[in-house]
Amino acid sequence: MAKGVIVKPIIIQWAIQSAGKDVRGLSDKFDKIDKWTSEESELTVSELNKLSKELRIPFGYFFLPEPPDEDIKLLKYRTIDNEDQEKPSRELIDTIKYMEKRQSFMRDALIEDGFLPHEFVGSATIEDNPEDLASKITQELKLKINWNKNNPNTFNVLREEISNLGILVMQNGVVGNNNHRILNVAEFRAFVLIDQYVPLIFLNARDSTNAKVFSLCHELVHVWLGVDELYNDNFTSNQIVNNSQLEKFCNEVAAEMLLPLSSIQSTLEPQLDIYTNIKHISKVFNVSELVVCIRLKEKKIIDNKVFNEVYANLLIEMRENLLGKQLQEKKSGGDYYATNGSRLDARFATTVSRKAREGRILYTEAYELIGAKGKTYDNLIKYVEGRA
After folding, report:
1. pTM score, two decimals?
2. How many independent structural domains does the chain possess?
3. Least C-beta-crowded within 10 Å: which of 20, 202, 240, 258?
4. What's the rounded Cα separation, in Å, for the pair 159 and 144?
């Protein structure tokens, strides 16, 4: 008989709750689940492994005497209060923890290499003029006026310049390399972890490219303000916004970086209806149609009645397009190195590689930080360094 492992019922109960499951739903796969949740039980390693995978809870957690304190600070900085997403998914929690680990490594590496804290982190306040701050940030990024006009490479240009500034930019649509653990855009679009040495912006890669452009700019403003954020705006009108003054300011600065009033005025086609104009401006400046629509309302180019009508239609289209994008990605599979390379910040990857070669970190740590082992790690580093 296989040797068992004693697990406390409170741990099983916590694991089930954390995974968003219930005992009834698990009973088909685990016929002893009622017993495990009601009394101290002896589980085989095989049973424990199976339960760990099903609940997506780390195997080692089941050996704890009491549930771990998973106080994720970032969750206190949600943009929107959303009852449907009140309890964070394991996917979100694990992603935040992984990014915190990467950020911690990079901070130590920069300090070891003699780098100084960034002066721009926390250098702004919401009392600043949004237009002035937008100008200051774009200048710091070495971006020219109308830098995103007729530029299909807007996202990559913006990401590269942000990375060059010393801010890590990561993205993924799943947890690590596990394609079964999908990151839900309805739960979050992006987040930013503030650090004086190495701020980190993470983007949900399941979002549209134009939406990611705005998320990048929005989170960049948070870096200048020195305030963490979990950005979960779903662009509906009935949302309860946390710290609405802060978020309104960040949105204004981000919109100003991408779509200043002068650009709107020079691109509007009077002979076209507003709906068509929004589509046109979105395409020219590589900004999401919803952002364009909001911008037209804020600049009083359209009134509330027109805004509400057009915005509702655009919101439906956005959701349909996102669904289509995700289905297409699922079918295509994609190139391993292109996909995984895009998930990494190039500066981060080259630093991990260099520290491993110098013997400053073990290769096992480098493999974990990059998310690949052996030859795959070597080839992925080469791919990213070639992109850098």
Report:
1. 0.85
2. 3
3. 240
4. 15
